[in-house]
């Protein structure tokens, strides 16, 4: 029998959003290390309430079925450890989809996984309200591709499945570029809203607007040196346009890093800021604002009394 079940590993906000949207079209199983109610509620952007009952499995004791695809939707800092647990139990050849922010775990897991690996870069917005309730805060778009440009047929099948389920997706052959672009936008927005506990739209106001502009200058210089271009192919003006477009489109959103700070969780600061600062170091470029953010978030991580939530 051909495998058909989609495994969602790391059922946080994004994981449960994907599960809800896929349910009814393909079999879905949620896997994690924390017990969640099988009966789950999704609140749509239109305010509708959708209820689904999911098969739940402990990550350490995988079912005997072979999944059609594994969606790894943990936070970036947990992805490699969770994958190691999975890899010890999964048969070779199972496709893996990485949904992490930043650009830290994707290259490592692409090399490590014994099967096709696709990366997803999404602007879908979601946040957790309770263990049994997730809000789909805003519609977005998802780009899918392999870092080496391969596995096109698998990527097209997945993009079609997601699109039919209400999560518009398309296949691209430059997913590495898409991941860097999202990282750049996140670096200009997320640390600021997390530090000042504000929604994205408040960055348009004083004194935050000037702070955003300083970070755009740093990010633009770094990515220009790396050969990473913004949409439009220009320089800093196009990076500025992209960042402010995202801020306008997500004005009422609470960024994922802010959600983590408010919940007392670790943030994805390493996956978002460390690759940029490593590139800045390679090109001997100053990035004092980004460096200060990373230092502050590392200090916060050391002070957290709770261990990292892996999934």
TrEMBL record:
InterPro entries: 6-PGluconate_DH-like_C_sf, 6PGD_dom2, ApbA, Ketopantoate_reductase, KPA_reductase, KPR_N, NAD(P)-bd_dom_sf. The keyword NADP applies. Residues 174-290 form the Ketopantoate reductase C-terminal domain. One of its GO terms (biological process) is pantothenate biosynthetic process. Keywords: NADP, Oxidoreductase, Pantothenate biosynthesis. Belongs to the ketopantoate reductase family. Catalyzes the NADPH-dependent reduction of ketopantoate into pantoic acid. This is 2-dehydropantoate 2-reductase.
């Amino acid at each position: 029998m051909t495998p058909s079940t989609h495994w969602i590993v790391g059922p946080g906000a994004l994981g449960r959003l994907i599960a809800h949207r896929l349910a009814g079209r393909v079999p879905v199983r949620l896997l994690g290390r924390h017990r969640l109610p099988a009966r789950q509620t999704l609140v749509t952007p239109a305010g509708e309430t959708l209820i689904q009952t999911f098969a739940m499995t402990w990550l350490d004791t995988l079912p005997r079925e072979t999944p059609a695809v594994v969606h790894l939707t943990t936070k970036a800092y947990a992805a490699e450890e969770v994958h190691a647990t999975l890899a010890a139990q999964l048969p070779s050849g199972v496709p893996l989809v990485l949904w992490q922010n930043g650009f830290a775990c994707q290259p490592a897991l692409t090399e490590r996984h014994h099967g096709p690996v696709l990366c997803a870069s999404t602007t879908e917005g979601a946040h957790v309200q309770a263990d049994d309730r997730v809000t789909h805060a805003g519609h977005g778009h998802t780009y899918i591709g392999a870092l080496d440009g391969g596995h096109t047929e698998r990527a097209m099948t997945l993009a079609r499945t997601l699109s039919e389920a209400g999560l518009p997706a398309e296949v691209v052959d430059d997913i590495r570029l898409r991941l860097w672009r999202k990282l750049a936008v996140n670096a200009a927005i997320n640390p600021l809203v997390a530090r000042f506990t504000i929604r994205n739209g408040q960055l348009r106001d004083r004194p935050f607007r000037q702070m955003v502009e300083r970070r755009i200058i740093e990010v633009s210089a770094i990515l220009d040196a790396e050969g990473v271009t913004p949409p439009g192919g220009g320089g800093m003006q196009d990076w500025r346009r992209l960042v402010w477009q995202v801020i306008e489109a997500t004005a009422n959103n609470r960024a994922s890093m802010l959600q983590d700070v408010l919940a007392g969780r670790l943030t994805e600061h390493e996956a978002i800021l460390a690759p940029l600062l490593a590139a800045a170091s390679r090109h001997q470029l100053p990035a004092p604002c980004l460096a200060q953010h990373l230092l502050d978030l590392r200090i916060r991580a050391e002070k957290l009394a709770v261990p990292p939530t892996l999934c």
